[in-house]
Write a structure and sequence with these properties.
alpha+beta; rod-shaped; 207 residues; two-stranded antiparallel ribbon
Length: 207
């Protein structure tokens, strides 16, 4: 997803792995370049002066020599190429391992945060029901048909739910910070309604 790609792009470990892989690729290209035909060319210039009946004539000549060589069999060269290829493969595997681990941690953090948000919504809904019941119990008590026990129980339940909601909100902030580290996003601010700017940036690509 775009979210994972963004995390990869901003991760210093992946940047370092890419730099190492690029250097290893350059070494492979250099080693393989020695298998290419090698050409050489030399040019000689000569001059002479001839005397004829009409006068003196200057003559100049360019002589060129060229050769092409190709290593038909060079065990050391082949071994160097194989070693460079092996190092490059290891670099790529290391980068893929870092990328896979980052993606897993990112998706896990997102799922945990999403579950926390669902739990918070459920508790907030339950709290609203309890508060409505608390209002009804209070009116019943004032009307002489209810009991103080009903009011006390609904009040205690409302406070307990509020405590649970606050604890989950703190956990969600921890997960938000975890995602922020993975995405290199800082300075996000919460809004009163719906997703905040940070969550729109993070989760819009997935949703």
């Amino acid at each position: 997803s775009i979210l994972v790609a963004k995390a990869w792009a901003g991760n210093p470990e992946i940047a370092s792995a890419l730099a190492s892989e690029s250097a290893d690729q350059a070494r492979v290209d250099q080693a393989r370049g020695r298998l290419l035909p090698q050409a050489s060319l030399s040019v000689d210039a000569t001059a002479s002066r001839l005397s004829e009946s009409a006068g003196t004539v200057d003559e100049r000549y360019l002589t060129g020599r060229g050769s092409v060589s190709y290593p038909l069999y060079n065990p050391r060269l082949r071994a160097n190429i194989d070693l460079a290829d092996e190092i490059l493969r290891n670099s790529r595997l290391a980068r893929l391992e870092i990328a896979s681990d980052l993606a897993l941690r990112l998706i896990t953090a997102y799922l945990e945060l999403n579950n926390l948000r669902e739990d918070i919504r459920a508790l907030e809904f339950e709290k609203q029901l309890v508060e409505n019941l608390q209002t009804v119990n209070q009116r019943r008590l004032e009307g002489g048909v209810g009991s103080i026990t009903e009011v006390t129980e609904s009040t205690f339940r409302s406070k307990l739910l509020d405590t649970q909601i606050q604890a989950l909100l703190q956990d969600s902030e921890v997960q938000r910070a975890e995602l922020g580290v993975r995405l290199a996003v800082v300075g996000h601010r919460r809004h009163d309604a719906g997703f905040d700017a940070f969550e729109v940036e993070c989760f819009g690509a997935i949703q």
